[in-house]
Amino acid sequence: MSLRLIVVLGVVGTCVNASSLLAANLSPEDRQAVDALKHGKYDEAIGIYTKLIEHYPKSGAAYYDRGSCYVHKEVYDKAIADLTKAVQLAPATPKYQSALALAKATAYYDKGKYNEALADANEALRLSPNFAPAYNERGIIYSQKGDPDKAIADFTKAIALIDTPLGPHNVAGPYYNRGSAYSEAAKYEKAIVDLNTAISLYPRDPYYYRTRATAYFHTRNHKGEIADLDRALQLNPASASNYNAAAWFLATCPQGDLRDGKRAVQHATKACEMTNWKHGDYVDTLAAAYAEAGEFEQAVRREQEALQLPDMQSKQDEAKARVILYQSRTPFREERRDPPKHRANYLTGTQVSLTFGAERGCYFVAAVSAVLSAIIDNQAWKPGVTAGSLELLELVALLVEQSDEAIWA
């Protein structure tokens, strides 16, 4: 255990007026679960939590953490079952039940069950009407269901409720989400304002730049668009999607002086190689790049290859039209584009579908403190300190260090 974590444990124990977690005696099974989860050994962690549940059948924390492991593995039915059990075992107080309802909503969302996700998000807000993470999650759900106006309203509420002492990444997320929703509503100038704010607060998330690039496309600021695409690629050169996005711009941009067929072929080829030539959209981009470079035979061949790949089945008409275009020795020019669907989520518990770091634009907020408080101050959430709580203690310490106000209204 690091010195910083030891300090954090002491701060949390003092600020919640409970005995310090340093005094908790972890069983060997607890320590094994902590180690397994921290090192991504989810099957091993699940096995340990299953044994813990056999010995402590009323441990809501064990069900919660095992459910989190299932979310890591994208086994959402089992995750939802465990999170439901955690709700049943948690203290019958609004803050605990609300946090767990939000965890279920997120699991349902990742499973694609948006109506169920909406119901649990609504329940979280019924229990805690000023619960900023639930407004954010419900906004994401409304966006997915094609209702950007309701999404914007919820993201606006989340922005109003978020505490600025949480740090720049935490505050940036709802601005990013609202900017994305504005893009979906074709309100691109408003989108750019929010995305500018998000980037100024947290300039290290490539998705923020990718989304602003789309808004720039619709406002015909193509120089701003390619600058953002290049920045996204610099921030995450391990992303094939970033190479593909830059290649598509360089091949199809309506502004001629910004197109570069040679670079487009290089970037598109890299994206295809990174995905073993199995991503139809990327092969389609490579075809457009070859056309821009004047290599139309290659363009036709690659477009025909793209047509055979599974992810292009819904885009057959577009791809076939491009084959004809390239056969006539004419490159493709992009005139319209759908907004991206990526959203920045609050991290609820240890759910890794909401991945740490920039790749999915997550930000960490006060919501998790409800679960941790339950582990700290309620004996029903024994045994010991669970793996999920150890990952999140530093966040809670930051919250309680910087604000004496109650997290839950």
Core attributes:
409 residues, mainly alpha, Serine Threonine Protein Phosphatase 5, Tetratricopeptide repeat, 2 domains, disordered C terminus
How many domain units? 2
Number of helices: 20
Q: What is the strand content?
A: under 5%
Radius of gyration: 24 Å
Describe the structure in your own words.
Helices cover 67% and strands 0% of the residues. The protein has 409 residues and is an all-alpha fold. It has 2 domains: 3-11 and 26-205 and 344-402, Tetratricopeptide repeat domain (Serine Threonine Protein Phosphatase 5, Tetratricopeptide repeat, Alpha Horseshoe); 245-327, Alpha Horseshoe (Serine Threonine Protein Phosphatase 5, Tetratricopeptide repeat), CATH 1.25.40. The longest helix is centred in the N-terminal third of the chain and has 18 residues, at 94-111. It is globular and about 70 Å long.
Summarize the structure.
With 409 residues, the chain is an all-alpha fold.
Detail the topology: elements first, then pairings.
Layout lengths: L2 H13 L12 H11 L3 H14 L4 H13 L3 H14 L4 H18 L2 H14 L4 H13 L3 H14 L6 H17 L3 H14 L4 H13 L3 H14 L4 H13 L8 H14 L5 H13 L3 H12 L8 H12 L40 H10 L9 H16 L7
Helix pairs in contact: 1-20, 2-3, 2-20, 3-4, 4-5, 5-6, 6-7, 6-8, 6-19, 7-8, 8-9, 8-10, 9-10, 10-11, 10-12, 11-12, 12-13, 13-14, 14-15, 14-16, 15-16, 16-17, 17-18, 19-20
